[in-house]
Amino acid sequence: MILKKLKLRNFRNIEHCEIVLDPGINVFLGNNGQGKTNCIESVVFSSTTRSFRVTNDNAMIKHDCPFASIECTIEEDGKKTVLSSVIHSKGKSLFVASKQVPKASEFIGRLNAILFSPNDLEMFNISPRERRKLMDMEIGKISLKYNAALLKYQKCLKERNQALKMECDIILLTSLESQMVDAQLQIIESRRVFVEFLNQRLTHKMKQLCDEDLELGVRLKSWIDFSDKSKLRELMQQKYDETRERDILLKVTGNGCHRDDIEFTMKGIPLNEMASQGQKRMVLLAIKLCLIDFVRMTKKTSPVLILDDVLSELDQNNRIRLFQVLDKEVQTLITTTDLDELKESLVKSPKIFRVDHGIIR
Ligand SMILES: Nc1ncnc2c1ncn2[C@@H]1O[C@H](COP(=O)(O)OP(=O)(O)OP(=O)(O)O)[C@@H](O)[C@H]1O
Ligand SMILES: [Mg+2]
After folding, report:
1. FRET label pair with 340: which of 32, 262, 289, 315, CA 20 to 30 Å apart?
2. For the CA of 60, the nearest atom of ligand 1
3. C-alpha of 274 from chain center
4. pLDDT-derived band of residue 347, with 50, 70 and 90 as boundaries?
């Protein structure tokens, strides 16, 4: 799949823009604060229906304007589809081929984008939340079933926590637990496959990127032992039976996949204790490159790779290797403040968009 055309209106500091992208490498070049990240944020929004920078959609509407709109024309096997989103004060409206879609799940993942943003480095710090977010977003983009199971789980979890805060109705609690168990069979299995996929490829990708044997490992740390799929339902049910009273006392659900985490290791030691800042950046890049393969394997299509602010922190050797590793078939959008950062790394000339005060040429 490639992104052919991007049309924006009142999106952050971009009043109007209409650009045709190259199927290869596209560079967004400009000084700080000109609108480069804004531009790629609009593409990521068209992939996930969310910003990767803010939780409040209204922040993406240009100041003093009533709405923002994004129109992405994607092409797959010669077939073009227009995906449009309008963000307004009352929410967002999503359209596929001019037809409004009532649910975000019908829109998400049609434009499949893999983003590298320096903010993602947070993922290796203390917060399991960021790691779960990555996992949920990436699996969610390729699996409607996963999204549906996750939504169902979150809804039941919320209801269970509300029930625990009120006078406790054991029948209600057990009924919600049973629904949570059903949803988790799907969630945990998808997460297991995802993590296993990363685990098998990460060390090799890292070696391609930095020419060092760094032995990376990824492991799903779940609240439940998922090694035997046939026993999973029973084990979960048993765990809820054992901990229900404690939950009633503490008024919160202590067990469930909302507490799962992914552990990254380097040479067997947690990455956070072991890796340098530069190495963490390279591991993150290696993860993103593995995700491209993940999308290809599961959806039989290539995603768009989006690299925000990646070059300035890489040394010249790593930059050269990155572009060597980037598959020629992957459409790439990359932001930079300085063309010199790119020049010597590239074999082929990229399409360059100059970004200046929200104007893209
Ligand atoms: N809702 C909005 N309306 C108008 N302008 C906005 C809005 N939100 C952000 N901006 C402006 O967008 C600009 C930031 O754009 P962006 O983050 O894309 O910069 P950038 O080109 O990526 O810069 P850097 O190289 O520093 O990352 C700022 O000037 C900011 O004031
Ligand atoms: Mg930026």
Report:
1. 289
2. 1
3. 25
4. low
What spacing in Å lies between the alpha carbon of 37 and ligand 2's midpoint? 4
pLDDT at 176 over 70: yes
Pocket test for ligand 1, best of 8, 10, 13, 359 (most atoms within 8 A of CB): 13
Homologous superfamily of the 125-290 domain (CATH): RecF/RecN/SMC, N-terminal domain (1.20.1050.90)
The residue extents of the domains of the chain are 125-290
pLDDT in tens, 238-289: 999 999 999 999 999 999 999 999 999 999 999 989 898 888 999 999 999 9
For the CA of 65, the closest atom of ligand 1 is 3
pTM for the complete prediction? 0.91
